[in-house]
Design goal:
The protein is about 20% helix and about 25% strand. By secondary structure, the protein is of the alpha/beta class. The radius of gyration is 16 Å and the shape is globular.
Amino acid sequence: MIIKVCGLTDNPESRAVAELDGIDMLGFIFYESSSRYTESTLTTTKKKVGVFVNAPLDYVLEKINTHSLNAVQLHGSEPTEYIKQLPKGIEIIKGFGIASAEDLEQTKAYVGLADMFLFDTKSPKHGGTGTAFNWQVLENYKGETPFLLSGGIGPESVEALRKFSHPKLAGYDLNSRFELAPKIKDATLIAKFLNEMKP
């Protein structure tokens, strides 16, 4: 399973997270309305993901180049034409806020454009709520694009995650429930979670 930790920046706590075994993706939020907004990333061998919400295309391209991003996570209402203008070779994660089965309909327009989807708790804040949605809704997702599960996953979620299965579940996105304050991640707590999630 892919493990992505989001809401990082260039600080000692984020560097400690980046050094943990078992983490595949590091997320950096380039969305000014987020309490986890950053203009800094880390030097790392792990996959770096820039998170954007309805950002101008030039801004996204500049961040890809400046920070050597491996992937972009689009968490707004970016149209399909926007995605087609992103550089070839950059991995695309398209985020969706999910509250009901109807919300899954919006994924259909992005089939073949996004490498992965990310299903998060539906919120006007575009993520970082610390609350989970009803994962059973995802039984209605019949698409072929793999997805990351996000939204309120915390240290106490291990048992529930073990019980949840879906043929297209690719991994988990960790954020606000593993931090002492916005952008101040608790690497010890994440390490404990990773250990408990081992089969």
